[in-house]
Fold these 2 entries.
Entry 1:
Amino acid sequence: MFDIIVKGGTLPDGRITDIGIEAGRIKAIGSLDADAGEVIDAAGDLVAPPFVDPHFHLDATQSYGTPRINASGTLLEGIGLWGELKEVMTVGDMVSRALTYCDWAASMGLLAIRSHVDTCDDSLKGVEAMLHVKDEVKDYIDLQLVAFPQDGLYRDPTARANTIRALDMGIDVVGGIPHFERTMADGAASVRDLCEMAAARGLRVDMHCDESDDPMSRHIETLTYETQRLGLQGRVNGSHLTSMHSMDNYYVSKLLPLIAEAEVSAVPNPLINIMIQGRQDTFPKRRGMTRVKEMQAHGITVGWGQDCVLDPWYSLGTADMLDVAFMGMHVAQMSSPEEMARCFDMVTHQNAAIMGLGDYGLHIGAAASLVILDAANPIEALRLRAARLCVIAKGRVISRAPRMDAALAIPGRPDTVRRRHKVQ
Ligand code: FE2
């Protein structure tokens, strides 16, 4: 007797199978002829593990237009605007906006999020708010929080002390922003300092690193070196790494093997990178996203992150990791069938590996979290940004959505007009 059996789903690798769920865990995979509290007929639809976002800002989401918009569209104006906003935002505001986003995420099958939390203000209200949200959503979303000194560990006079306080309060991961420090030397020193904090506490590291068009922004080199020196292999991630787009090719040919050797992973954020980078360029204008396929060819784990939805840096977004992967595959020119399928794997398994999620995946013993998509395979899911027909989190159905809107169907071309699930 199972709690739930998902019948006849197509796994991302093409196998068609049943999945038996009991007490929040996957208990059986194969042809199941048993009783269950509920049988969900997947009818050949794609059944995938949940989407994972390894880079987000829950403390800022849903604040678009408050108190004004980012007129230049640059990272630096966004940081200034966030500085105005966090002065007036309350813990209650941040909790309420973040919980709304978590509802959107759940409906999209996005069930694990790593969120950076600003640790610069002396009140640490963002930290207080996000720790509350983490507890509130724990039955359906695994929320990992990163202590993020947005205004610079050294550039802001109290950021270092406040970041340490945030870690003492229970924040999971050590973050940083070396390219925003006053000098390259301060940036490198901040990377060293923060990696030492993580090593001393046994924590993971995830830094905003080289989010810049400056080809000489090379903090990823220091991050890689410190990972090796401190024995942090497999626990460190570099987010953005956009300067690598503009770096000298010879330098990159030396850099990538070092990143691979140190087992440092990478998370580009394609929606935000393509919107924010290259703003000082005329034409030709740089894409400003890091070298994804080139890193993967060196064996470096690369995921895709969402970064922002409706905040001072990005005015759109729906918590849909298929949108993120869809943009990423275009900007990185990942057009072969193998590369397109890999983009789906990046927003599921690769992102889960970057976050270190232990019980993730569709295998016996894993947490019973999965999503049934209105698509036959991962590439079709990307092409259609397919509806999430059913989302199961830790053994419980938390969201259902209708299949394609029949009214929009074009006779003879039924799969071309599947309407995306619209978040209410
Ligand atoms: Fe970010």
Entry 2:
Amino acid sequence: MDLIKDIDILSAEEAQVCDFKTTEDHSTGKQKKVYIESYGCQMNFSDSEIVASIMKENGYDTTSDLKKADVVFLNTCSIREKAEQTVRNRLTHFNGLKRFKPGMTIGILGCMAERLKEKLLEEEKIVDLVVGPDAYRDLPNLVATAEEGLKAINTFLSREETYGDISPLRLNSNGVSAFISIMRGCDNMCSFCVVPFTRGRERSRDPESILAEARDLWSKGYKEVTLLGQNVDSYKWSPEENNKARLNKKGENISQVIHFAHLLEMVAQVSPQLRVRFSTSHPKDITDEVLYTIKKYDNICKYIHLPVQSGSDRVLELMNRTYDRAWYMDRVLAIREILGEECGISSDMIAGFCSETEEEHQDTLSLMEQVKYDFSYMFYYSERPGTLAAKKYADDIPLETKKRRLAEIIEKQSQIAFDRNRLDLGKEQIILIDGTSKKSIADLKGRNSANKVVIVSGADLKLGDYVRVKIKECSPATLFGEVLEINPSQI
Ligand code: SAH
Ligand code: SF4
Ligand code: F3S
């Protein structure tokens, strides 16, 4: 095998946020069919599974065939301008389709629906309904209204909605890994970010419903769950007052509050053979307690997505990230001390934020060197209307410069990832098989604890197997392993 050909350099275009997936067929003999296309982050993909479940209860099967659909949903993302443009282009494509099927209902869900509200109905004539992320329980009513030929909209943002009682209909599932949403919204006001406006206030989901979902997945044969939230470290649930802690006169907390470390522990106890992952961690909130919980359980994966955004203190301040470089490095050192060198660390980086100088860009590159990220999602700054940065700072870095800085960041990441992967050569690791290799269907792929993709060959391997492998070769994006043992007792 020529390994050099396997070198995969992650570009911003390939990152998770530009991806989309269509729903697979879940036919239970229902008359009507819904087709869902999802864009953006994992939370959006996870929401599409809630939407599919709500629609199923109301007489709709999902389909992957657009032509068979009575209802088409685009679950959209607003994080960068390009994400919104992709959806606009898709709508142009649907124009042709609707000419053949005039009765088809087209709905925009998710963050773009929330951001643009009625404007979407005005600007995109083809759209029949617009539904924000907290209004999915209302979908059956809204679809019924649209089917009568009227436009329908609900962009109400809730302080309580977590869809905790809804059992998601798993879409495009490999039957091995699933996502569990543990909280919604975001209360951080990073100045570049549209999420607090599109997803509303932060709220945590009842831990019992999270555990019930994890147990159900385990009983159905799933081997890995990823706990999802924009900022999982600020997960906080108490029985009183809609998730607010009860305080006594001295201001002391007297209700039992569940924080992220405790939740993580409870999910890890569902089964020692169920792998637990989580995303996203915020550098200002990740505690040593969380790190010790990760260390304590073999089935909690040793991998932390800890987006830094920039390596410059001044830029971090402008971004309102509420930590500086020294704080961030302290958290990285804590990870290294508690979880060791092998713990995977990944990041998000924004190139060319408002007024960023060449020197500050160099600070980002030097921070990357210092941390040695295994992986990063890398973007150039895209101004989002209504955000603090759009109001306060000029988007003054020329596009050419943003792109060049991004290319330098991508290049740096690729070198560092290659170095990090080389450290794995000769090591024994446990991977969980979750699919076939992109390059050759004869090979299978799995992930090690640090979230790195490991390619293996072996006729007797199947999805969901834990495999002890020895790492033989690597590229910047992938490890290649030799199978030593299938389903070892210890994961
Ligand atoms: N809650 C997560 C991030 C969610 S958005 C966190 O705080 O880390 C995912 C990533 O998109 C962000 O980390 C950031 O790197 C990027 N992003 C967000 N807004 C952006 C913008 N306006 N332009 C470019 N990238 C952006
Ligand atoms: Fe956006 Fe910041 Fe919230 Fe992440 S923490 S979703 S970047 S506002
Ligand atoms: Fe996009 Fe909304 Fe997620 S803006 S990144 S889909 S929270």
